[in-house]
């Protein structure tokens, strides 16, 4: 499995601690440094079963600058949202764990991390 993290994020650090405590085999991706391309974001969204606006941190300063709260949340606007996430990775909710079974979870809670571990 792979986990997308921001090391400054307490939820990310908690998820890593739990993965370590459970002896999980995982790879860390510091997504602010190793920025995912639009295709990777699309793939993760498919694995999550979510839309880009579902994993967007709308309270970030850049989200406010872009006016994301006013962007349409529809199929026609999906590409625009994905492009914004790729251009401004700080907008991506974290941590995201891609599980070995092809699924993924936004692992902001202990339950979500345990869910990823069970896959």
Write out key terms for the chains shown.
single chain, 119 residues, alpha+beta, four-stranded mixed sheet, 5 helices, 39% helix, globular
* Helical run tally: 5
The helix-strand sequence is: EHEHHHEEH
Major sheet description: 4 strands, mixed
Quote the distance from N terminus to C terminus: 10 Å
Q: Which structural class fits the helix and strand makeup?
A: alpha+beta
User: Would you count the extended β strands for me?
Assistant: 4
What would you say this structure looks like, in words?
By secondary structure, the protein is an alpha+beta fold. Helices cover 39% and strands 12% of the residues. The chain has a 4-stranded mixed sheet, sandwiched between helices.
Topology (SSEs and partners):
Layout: E1 2-5, H1 10-21, E2 27-30, H2 38-48, H3 61-66, H4 78-87, E3 96-98, E4 104-106, H5 110-117
Parallel strand pairs: 1-2
Antiparallel strand pairs: 1-3, 3-4
Please outline what is shown here.
The chain is of the alpha+beta class. It contains five helices and four strands.
């Amino acid at each position: 499995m792979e986990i997308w993290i921001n090391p400054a994020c307490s939820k990310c650090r908690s998820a890593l601690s739990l993965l370590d405590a459970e002896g999980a085999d995982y790879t860390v991706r510091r997504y602010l440094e190793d920025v995912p391309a639009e295709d990777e974001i699309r793939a993760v969204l498919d694995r999550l079963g979510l839309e880009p606006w579902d994993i967007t941190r709308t309270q970030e300063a850049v989200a406010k600058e872009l006016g994301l709260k006013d962007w349409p949340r529809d199929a026609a606007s999906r590409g625009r949202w994905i492009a914004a996430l790729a251009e401004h990775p700080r907008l991506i909710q974290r941590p995201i764990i891609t599980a070995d079974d092809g699924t993924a979870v936004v692992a902001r809670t202990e339950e979500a991390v345990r869910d990823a571990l069970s896959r």
